[in-house]
Amino acid sequence: GAPLVAQQTEPRLALVIGNAGYGPGALPTALNDAGLVAEALRSIGFEIVEGADLSQADLVRSVRDFLAKVNASGPDALAFVYFSGHALSFDGESFLLGVDARLERESDIPIEAVRLSDLLGPFADSPARAKVVMIDAARPLPFRPQGKGLARGLESIEPPRGMLVAYSSAPGTVAPDRPGDYGAYAT
């Protein structure tokens, strides 16, 4: 007889963003990494919303549209967010950077970047059964804004209840890209 294929009942949604084209220095593997993660998720039944080289405004819009989809999918949904690009920590908060970020002074950061907590809060409030956020942003920053000096890496966070947040390196650390087409974390 024909093999029985398990019926996938829950909606599986993923937002996968690869930001490579930063003005001060491109990230060689970010787009490949996002493609690799999207393919892996697609192979296990996820519907993928992909974003490449998103500006700050496009990043905010993509997250908002994705959250609307997740909210419409009901309480059985599995929701996954992957961001490969530059992120930084400032004043005790982590920020994701759109490719259009212009950081001349440290005071530009809250204006030019997307606060991670602003993404996690609404995501945590969504009815989805499982919520995973992976931030692949451990690379040293090409930005040198004027100010006291940025902390290395991202801030450690207490994820909202019912959510898993994973960083590509320990809080407060960075790791340069290794040679090759893909980053270690995505692989």
Structure description:
This protein has helices at residues 30-42, 56-72, 109-112, 116-125; strands at residues 12-18, 47-52, 78-84, 87-90, 93-97, 113-115, 130-136, 163-167. Strands 2-1-3-7-8 form a five-stranded parallel sheet, sandwiched between helices. It is an alpha/beta fold.
Write the layout of secondary structure elements.
Layout: E1 12-18, H1 30-42, E2 47-52, H2 56-72, E3 78-84, E4 87-90, E5 93-97, H3 109-112, E6 113-115, H4 116-125, E7 130-136, E8 163-167
Parallel strand pairs: 1-2, 1-3, 3-7, 7-8
Antiparallel strand pairs: 4-5, 5-6
Structural class: alpha/beta
Regions with little confidence, pLDDT below 50 for 5+ residues: none
What is the helix/strand order?
EHEHEEEHEHEE
Q: What percent of residues adopt helix (DSSP H or I)?
A: 10-25%
* Whole-number mean pLDDT: 91
Task: Give the gist of this structure.
This protein is α/β, with parallel strands linked by helices and 187 residues long. The protein has helices at 30-42, 56-72, 109-112, 116-125, and strands at residues 12-18, 47-52, 78-84, 87-90, 93-97, 113-115, 130-136, 163-167.
Feature tags:
alpha/beta; 3-stranded antiparallel sheet; single chain; 8 strands; globular; 187 residues
